[in-house]
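Hello support,

Our group uses your service weekly, and this is the first time we've seen a run hang past the timeout. The protein is Ferredoxin CarAc. I'm not sure whether the cause is the sequence or the server load. Input pasted verbatim:
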Amino acid sequence: MTWIRVASTGDIKEGSGKELNINGQRIALFLSKNRYYAIEALCRHQDGSLAPGKVEGEVVECPLHFWHYNIRTGELLDYMEGVQLNTYPVEIRNNDIYINL
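Update from on-call engineer: The timeout came from a worker crash unrelated to the input. Re-ran successfully.
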């Protein structure tokens, strides 16, 4: 695994997300309640990006068809059991955000 600098802390506003493309992987980075989360960016339903979704606490709502995912665990919270997106550890170093891939 490798730590990669992906953004600065000022790049993401509270309660929102940003999609990143890191080595061909689409990852959504979220800031919620002063904590950063990194998760696979694509909803399992129809591959819509979760990054512009509505964030409340540890839950993001896919903007296309309103599926809900826990941004800490990657778990889909409705519709089907056992669906889970990959999550990635996040570290803040000075004002830089790093993700461990």
